[in-house]
Each structure stands twice: as structure tokens, then as C-alpha cells.
Amino acid sequence: MSKHPATTREDHDDFCVAEKWQLVRGTSGQPVRHHRTYELALWDGQILRTRISRPVDRSTYSAGMWTHILRTQLTVDADAFWACVRDKKLPDRGAPETVTQREPLPLYLVRALRELGVDESESLALTAVEAAQLLAEKMAQRYGYQSRS
Q1: SS3 38
Q2: In terms of pTM, does the model score above 0.70?
Q3: Measured over all CA atoms, what is the biggest interatomic distance in the chain, rounded to whole angstroms?
Q4: How many other C-beta atoms lie within 10 A of the C-beta of residue 121?
Q5: Among 65, 17, 72, 77, which residue's Cα sits nearest to residue 50?
Q6: Residue 146 confidence (pLDDT) above 70
Q7: What's the CA gap between 142 and 88, in Å, rounded?
Q8: Domain of life here (predicted)?
Q9: What is the dihedral of CA 31, 33, 34, 40, to 10 degrees?
Q10: Are strands 47-53 and 35-41 parallel, antiparallel or unpaired?
Q11: Contact 48, 39 (CB under 8 A)
Q12: What is the pLDDT of residue 147?
């Protein structure tokens, strides 16, 4: 016995809506009428397409038909499908992780710190604010300024 209930056309539609698939429109600009048709563009350029026969209701798919839809159209397993439908947990489509970029350090700070004896690799590890503070400290040391505390 399966750990998931029989899948309905409505469940299929709920999955597409939750994962933000785009409803395909015909040449007239209206949604396709013979089936509800969705497309999903993936990060790697692949485009997935699935069709839900009308009416989109609580009628169930046969086990063989549903296995085919999962494998060839939705490209997810049953667990990922139900996690998306029930919990709105989007399936892992293998997209690369986004790397947060740091603000680049202005070149004048790198050069000024190098002139004051700070190694370039050390200065590049700093944020712009940290580099400016370090520059102020180094300049104060070099020219004998006292802080106003």
C-alpha cells in the first residue's frame, strides 16, 4: 500500500500553482482550452511541460499514468510532489546556490593601506568600513595624532 493517497487532477494543479508554473496560452492569448497546460523554465534552460485534462477536479489518475506524469512531466518523486502540495515545500531542482557577493574594496583604500605596511591579502579580507577605520588608525599612528576621547 502506498504512503500517499491517489493523486487527483486538483492535486496536480495545486502542485503547479505552488511551484509557480506558468499557464500556457494559445495563439489568441487565451489559456489553452483542451487541457490546462503549464510550463516551468528551469535554471539550466530546460523547460518542463505538463497537461491536466479538464475538468480539473477530484477525479484520480491511474497508478501507471501518475508514475509517467511524475517521471516525464514534473520530474519529481512522489515524496517531493506531496511535500509541495501539502506543505508548499518546493522541490529541489538542483539550482546552484547563490553566492553573496561582498562589496569590492575601493582601490584607493588598498593602495593607501599597502603604503602604510598592510599586506594586500589582509586588506582585501576587510569590508570598506573596516579598511577605512584601519587606514585612520594607521595614519594616526604614523603622524602621531591623538584620539579625542
Answers
A1: strand
A2: no
A3: 83
A4: 7
A5: 72
A6: no
A7: 59
A8: Bacteria
A9: 10
A10: antiparallel
A11: yes
A12: 57
Alpha-carbon distance of 134 to 126, in angstroms, equals 9
In 3D space, the residue among 132, 89, 95 whose CA is nearest the CA of residue 113 turns out to be 132
Q: What angle do CA 28, 32, 34 make, to 5 degrees?
A: 130
Residue range 25-67, pLDDT digits in tens: 877 777 767 788 999 999 888 999 999 988 888 999 999 999 9
Please answer whether residues 74 and 15 qualify as being in contact, where contact means their C-beta atoms are separated by less than 8 angstroms. yes
Asked if the bond preceding 91 is cis, omega within 30° of 0, the reply is: no
Helix then strand then coil, in percent of the chain rounded to 5, is 40, 15, 45
Q: How many angstroms separate the first and last alpha carbons of the chain?
A: 76
Residue with cell 593602495: 111
3-class SS of residue 126:
coil
**Grid cell listed for 146:** 591623538
> What nine digits make up the cell of 96?
546552484
Task: Report the distance separating Cα 136 and Cα 130, nearest Å.
Answer: 10
